[in-house]
Amino acid sequence: MKPKSCSHLEAIDHIKSGAGVCEECVKTGDEWVHLRTCQTCGVTLCCDSSINKHARTHHEESSHPVIASAEPNEYWAFCYLDNLYKKFKPQ
User: Fold this and answer.
1) Where exactly are the structural domains of the chain?
2) Of 34, 39, 54, 65, which is least packed with CB atoms within 10 Å of its CB?
3) DSSP states of the chain as a string?
4) Could you tell me the pTM of the whole model?
5) Sign of the dihedral defined by the CA atoms of residues 84, 45, 65, 60, in that order
6) What is the pLDDT of residues 26-67, one digit of tens each?
7) Residues with Cβ < 8 Å from 72, sequence gap 6 or more?
8) Please, are residues 88 and 73 in contact by the beta-carbon 8 Å criterion?
């Protein structure tokens, strides 16, 4: 049975905002679908719907567990380790 909460998400009280671009896609000239910001280091990268999936790659290489949507008017975070989401109030 999956947990209904996780310590990684519970440790976050506000979402770190990031750049308006995928920093890795900019380097390669690729496009992205949506952006996610790592809540450990603050880097903004593309989501799993994007061809490069840079945010997931960042998690796999760094073990940083939580990303948050970097899209306008979206206030949620996702923990890769526990496969759980948490909604936040607009800041």
Assistant:
1) 7-87
2) 34
3) ---SS-HHHHT-SSPPP--SS-HHHHHHT---S-EEEETTT--EEE-TTSSS-HHHHHHHHH---EEEE-STT--EEEETTTTEEEE----
4) 0.91
5) positive
6) 999 999 999 999 999 999 999 999 999 999 999 999 999 999
7) none
8) no
Looking at 3.90.1030.10, 3.30.40.10, 3.90.470.20, 3.40.1780.10, the CATH number of the domain 7-87 comes to 3.30.40.10
Rounded distance, CA 81 to CA 91, Å? 26
- Residue that is written with structure tokens 């679908």 in the block: 33
Percent of the chain predicted with pLDDT > 90: 85
Q: Is the pLDDT of residue 72 over 60?
A: yes
